[in-house]
Amino acid sequence: MVLSQKLHEAFKGAVERVTGPRTVSAFKEKGVLSVSEFILAGDNLVSKCPTWSWESGEPSKRKSYLPPGKQYLITRNVPCLRRAASIEEEYEAAGGEVLLEDEDNDGWLATHGNPKETKSSDEENLPSMENLEISKKNKTIQSISSYFGAGEEEEDIPDMEEYEEPDNLIETDAATLQSNYLVAQEPDDDNILRTRTYDVSITYDQYFQTPRVWLTGYDESRMLLQPELVLEDVSQDHARKTVTIEDHPHLSGKHASVHPCRHSAVMKKIIDVLMSRGVEPEVDKYLFLFLKFQSLIEMKCGNVQQWLLMCLLSLL
Amino acid sequence: MAEESSSPSVLLQFAPFQSAVDDGFWRRLSSLKLDTLGIDQSPIPITGFYAPCSNPQVSNYLTLLAESLPPEAGKEASVRGTLSLGNRNRCPVPGILYNTNTLESYRAIDKRSLLKAEAKKIWEEINSGKAEEDSAVLSRFLLISFADLKKWSFHYWFAFPALVLDPPATLVNLQPATQCFTLAEAESLSAACNKWRSSSLTADVPFFLVSIASDSNVAIRPLRDWAVCQGDGQKLLFGFYDPCNLPNNPGWPLRNFLALICARWNMEKVCFLCYREKHGFADLGLSLVGEALISVPQGRKDPQYVPNAVGWELNIEKKMVSRRISLAQSMDPTRLAISAA
Q1: If you write DSSP's letter for every residue of A133-181 in order, what string do you get?
Q2: CB atoms < 10 A from the CB of A63, how many?
Q3: Could you tell me the residue range of the domain that residue A254 belongs to?
Q4: CB within 8 Å: A51 and B279
Q5: Domain B170-293's class?
Q6: With the CA atoms of B135, B136, B140 and B146 taken in that order, what torsion angle do they form, in degrees rounded to the nearest 10?
Q7: Total structural domains within chain A
């Protein structure tokens, strides 16, 4: 961990101990969430997208201001079929547009080009993060053999001689499917790609008073990925800047997380835009908006206009 | 697919269950070993979790989490018990962990006998009727491990015992569920499944009966209602939460379910529903409906009879080998100190 990051964590921890969690709503004014609003928004997410569920996490890490059974939200086993790096190449090739990060440039909302024809999984009405893959329009799939081939040197890969089976365990059973069941299949593509999967969790960040997204990656055989490898799946503009690797507040170990320092500002902007268009944002929809904005960071989902349109749709 | 499955002599093949272990599980096992168990090698009851496949691109796993291990004495027992109850994304499956103290004893484990013993439990629970009351026992699993706490490395191997039907089941037909129902039936079936999956009483019950009345009305019932569903002219399907995503194969849990259907209800032609979801709701395009022929196993008359069992998990290269995970990077205090410096 970088020193500045550590100092910041210490500072944050001290402030959190002194100030206590937010209880007054400032959702429309500041884009932040109080604890009860977080629970409300979480309940709504769980009921609309039941692949999400509340969990309690490690008892020792339990936050007293949240109910024991509603410490954080998680959805498991979300496939990510391609590395973000290859999505980005396609994106650039397609004449990609400005990212949300360029939001200081006030024109970012005003442009209203036609949404691309990309058949994106985000077009579905609920941002359930069922699939971290964004676009399938292009069939060039970047092989990840470089990662996979390097596995031999990795410590996690066992020494073969260590595993010689003394009793020569062989099961012959015709009813056991022997084909390559472990690989993902892309329905409209002959290419078969081994799949990384993610557990995506949302915690409440007391200091920033916003939700915070965490990514726990698994490799093709469902072995935990080093958090550094998760960065391969994150838009390169964001890797190591907005996405940091830190201790998870409710789980053990280090996980990749989208740093929440700008969340409330971005959410505030979204809320302002909605209100200027006559849509009254409801706090229980907060996490839907939030996930749209997160998926933009994580996977660089095409263009901003299309995304905003979807935000609007999900509120209507 | 239609051509292939319409041939009556096709063997019904099942996609094996796959395991996933959260590192929280190994951490809790380490502290349990150090603080409570010591050198005690008694088997430990554990709980695995699974859910129906929820994405056409990946199968779901049988997952072990920190909560899979028994709670530390006196702590959290009540909270934990109520939490996992009815969580639709965490259907509990009973398992057993044999953790050894040395690598030698890990290697010396008689895997065949252990698998056989678990299969016998399943067979007994089928025949005693217990499996109809608590259907999760049909997917019982087995985990053997050696936790090398000095090196923060864990050797382990899963088995998902499946009773082998002899002769094996053959497939008459297997199709996406959308093609097997009228529109009204399909709508009613989706609604009934979603209701079953959203009630905390049934959300984590992985095996069930689907009865379709002549007026297209679908009801989902627990296995114990089998007798009630007989003889009223309703179409009956045997449904289960299918962790598998493949379009041409049902997942592993169907194996022991077929054994139950054969042993308890003496059926020869079985219609089954591989229940799968999308975004957490019933997806009949992904779900499969199949028709299989099963016959009473040879030797069934013998009261001592226990079917053969298979189920040791293969690795990603399809080899019968033990797995190992090293958590030194995140657990070894020396390494943590170095990386923190």
Answers
A1: --B-S-------HHHHHGGGGSTTSPPGGGG--TT------TTB--S-T
A2: 18
A3: 3-104+122-129+193-315
A4: yes
A5: alpha beta
A6: -170
A7: 1
In a domain, A171, yes or no: no
- Inter-chain Cβ pairs, chain A and chain B, closer than 8 A: 156
Select the residue of A163, A166, A195 nearest B58 (Cβ to Cβ): A195
The single-letter code of the amino acid at B214 is S
Task: Please give, rounded to a whole number of angstroms, the shortest distance from the CA of A163 to a CA of chain B.
Answer: 6
Determine, yes or no, domain membership for A144.
no
Choose among B210, B52, B62, B221: nearest CA to B143: B62
Residues of B with Cβ-Cβ distance to A174 under 8 angstroms: 11, 13, 168
Fold classified for B15-165+304-340: Cytidine Deaminase; domain 2 (3.40.140)
* H-helix or E-strand spanning residue B275: strand B269-275
In a domain, A20, yes or no: yes
Q: Do A184 and B89 touch (CB under 8 A)?
A: no
Provide the pLDDT confidence category of residue B88 given band limits of 50, 70 and 90: very high
Q: Do B280 and A51 make contact, defined as CB atoms within 8 angstroms?
A: yes
pLDDT digits (tens, 9 = 90+) for A252-296: 888 888 888 878 887 888 788 888 888 777 887 888 777 766 665
Predicted local confidence at residue A154, as pLDDT: 38
B316 touches chain A (CB under 8 A): yes
User: Within a domain: residue A154?
Assistant: no
